[in-house]
Design a protein that fits this description.
Largest sheet: 6 strands, mixed
Strand order of the largest sheet: 6-7-8-3-9-10
Number of strands: 10
Strand content: 15-25%
Helix content: 25-40%
Order of helices and strands: EEEHEEHEHHHEHEHEEH
Structural class: alpha/beta
Radius of gyration: 19 Å
Length: about 250
């Protein structure tokens, strides 16, 4: 990797992507600071998910540069992204319903008893409980199967699992969709807690009211172009929606 001049945690420059004749991203530049929460918004088809899938290694851009902490990165697959400290939580969560909370948190990096290949369930459950406590997530028993949790608790487990990998960057795709008000509050509090630990968070959501609770900036895409970078305290909901429709003063 080559060092580039940037004080940002994330620097995406002139990112372009087409699918056949359709230009989905047309030269997007995005900078995100350490510990910053970005609300990435735009109408359907604006290019939000494609841009974040490029960052997470699920889509390869046609052109452009990405740098993480000033080091140019070639993100060719999700494994590479994770090695660089990038975690993405998709809307479908990818949890295993028939496993308990602890097993989901340690999925793919399980603890084993020394000298054997037997899973150390007690250690994983204790560490899972400690990690959830650190993130202020209230789940009484990490032996519960994920299928028995509420929607908000399931989302919290998915976020906590990503956070246990100590990411530099966490991308969240519609984390509060279809949740009750109390569950939304739980997830927004968790996002604040994660960002307070220095993790840069990029939040994609159609629930614009949630962004006003947690975002430091609104970044607006319209037809594959970044058209606005707005401060929440100076931006009304009407102005944000107008920007999403391409109506930028």
């Amino acid at each position: 990797m080559t060092t580039v001049e940037s004080s940002s945690r994330i620097s995406m420059r002139d990112i372009r992507k087409s699918f056949g004749p359709v230009s989905v991203l047309r030269g997007v530049n995005l900078e995100v600071a350490r510990g910053e929460v970005i609300g990435l918004v735009g109408d359907n088809g604006a290019g939000k998910s494609t841009l974040m899938k490029i960052l997470a290694g699920a889509v390869i851009p046609d052109a452009g540069e990405i740098a993480i902490d000033g080091e140019r990165a070639s993100i060719t697959e999700p494994k590479v992204a994770r090695q660089l400290g990038i975690e993405m939580v998709y809307q479908d969560l990818a949890l295993c319903n028939d496993l308990d909370v602890a097993a989901n948190l340690f999925l793919g990096r399980e603890h084993y008893h020394h000298g054997t290949r037997k899973l150390d369930h007690e250690r994983m459950r204790n560490e899972a409980q400690e990690h959830l406590r650190d993130l202020k997530v209230r789940i009484s028993d990490t032996r519960q199967e994920v299928s028995n949790l509420s929607g908000g608790q399931r989302q919290a487990v998915a976020l906590a699992r990503a956070a246990t990998f100590h990411p530099k960057i966490l991308v969240l795709d519609e984390p509060t969709a279809a949740l009750a008000a109390a569950e939304v509050a739980l997830i927004l509090a968790l996002i604040k807690e994660i960002s307070a630990q220095g993790v840069s968070v990029i939040l994609i959501t159609h629930r614009l009211q949630d962004l006003y609770e947690v975002a430091d900036r609104f970044v607006v895409l319209y037809e594959g172009v970044l058209v606005a970078d707005l401060p929440p305290k100076e931006t009304s909901m009407e102005q944000l929606i107008a920007a999403m429709m391409g109506q930028v003063a």
